[in-house]
Design brief:
By secondary structure, the chain is of the alpha/beta class. It is built from 5 helices and 14 strands. A 6-stranded mixed beta sheet has the order 10-11-9-12-13-14, sandwiched between helices. A 5-stranded mixed beta sheet has the order 3-1-8-5-6, with no helix packed on it. β13, α4 and β14 form a beta-alpha-beta unit. The longest helix has 15 residues, at about 250-265. The radius of gyration is 29 Å and the shape is rod-shaped. The model is unreliable at about 190-195, about 220-230 and about 335-345 (pLDDT under 50).
Length: about 350
């Protein structure tokens, strides 16, 4: 399945039905008055957040959505039927922008949450509405109003509590496959991960926590270098970042600093997000050597908190790493579950 996380669409509310000019024609009502009904309201375009969608792929081939037009009013004061709303399903975590003004119209993060993005037009008034003492037989009615038209930009920002970050080949995909049932493509070359992968990791209590494996970041990612610019948005909502560092790399400390600088440069509070840092691939080195102890001490001085030593392939240190993840998540209040509010974009 192709992963699409940003699209533009056009939406238009349905036109309101026209009002009608009609008069009462009953046999025993010699001075029948106006009886033209109002037109029905046009259907609106409404976005609905659903759980079963993970991408905006459907919008690659269908860009235009329109509510149904309202029906024309009828005689005998009959109001026309309202047009049906056009309901569009989008994944949880979809942010809606006005494509022309960049105004944020909404952020759908809860199941079945709805947002009206183009209201249908009002129905026109029939001639019965214009009856007055000065005009006992109005012979005019109003047409229905056009519905709202908008060009929207939809951006998907994954809803995951833990975001796994690091340079390419740090072992992020291997870790998420080891912790969950996710099975991302894994190979020994840069940028194996071209799309974010989600995996559900079970807590000791039995609850599931969503982890997101974010494609590798490189220096300049916040400016569009590599793949990072496209996917940094997906860690905006995470509560905790799990930063993996390849301990077999020639410059692991420099790699750590590169990622930190990219998070700060991107903004949106990512630089201040709680982080758990772990050296990965410790099965390939002697962890008791002076070189590894020196690296750990140097990183400890930068990160302050504990530095974990794990091997996603061999399953070394994963239990203690998860315990730290659960502990940090428990310390964060429920209100911080999705820290990115609309006003913080």
């Amino acid at each position: 399945m192709q992963f699409i996380d940003q699209v533009e669409i056009e939406v238009e509310g349905g036109k309101g039905g026209d009002g009608v000019v009609a008069f009462r024609r009953e046999k025993y009502v010699p001075a029948g008055g106006p009886a033209g009904g109002n037109g029905g309201k046009g259907g609106s375009v409404i976005l609905v957040a659903v759980e079963h969608l993970q991408t905006l792929l459907d919008f690659q081939y269908n860009h235009k959505f329109k509510g149904e037009n309202g029906k024309r009013g009828g005689p005998k004061n009959m109001t026309g039927a309202n047009g049906e709303d056009c309901l569009i399903q989008v994944p949880l975590g979809t942010v809606i922008y006005d494509a022309n003004t960049d105004e944020i119209l909404g952020d759908l993060i809860e199941k079945n949450q709805q947002l009206c993005v183009a209201a249908g037009g009002k129905g026109g008034l029939g001639n019965k509405h214009f009856l007055s003492n000065r005009n006992r037989a109005p012979e005019y009615a109003l047409p229905g109003l056009e519905g709202e038209q908008r060009r929207l930009r939809l951006e998907l920002k994954l809803l995951a509590e833990v975001g796994i970050i690091g340079l390419p080949n740090a072992g992020k995909s291997t870790l998420i496959s080891a912790l969950s049932a996710a099975r991302p493509k894994i190979a020994d070359y840069p940028f194996t991960t071209l799309i974010p992968n989600l995996g559900v990791v079970r807590k000791p209590t039995g609850d599931g926590t969503v982890f997101a494996d974010i494609p590798g970041l490189i220096e300049g990612a916040h400016l569009g270098a590599g793949l990072g610019h496209e996917f940094l948005r997906h860690i905006e909502r995470t509560r905790v970042l799990l930063h993996l560092i390849d301990i077999t790399d020639s410059n692991p400390i420099e790699n750590y600093q590169t990622i930190q600088e990219e998070l700060k440069a991107y903004g949106r509070g990512l630089g201040e997000r709680p982080q758990i840092v772990a050296f990965n691939k410790v099965d390939a080195v002697d962890i008791d050597s002076e070189e590894i102890k020196t690296l750990t001490s140097q990183l400890q001085a930068l990160h302050q908190d504990s530095i974990f030593q794990i091997s996603a392939v061999a399953g070394i240190g994963l239990d203690s790493l998860l315990q730290e993840v659960w502990q940090q998540l428990d310390q964060l209040s429920t209100s911080e579950k999705y820290p990115l509010e609309v006003g913080q974009f």
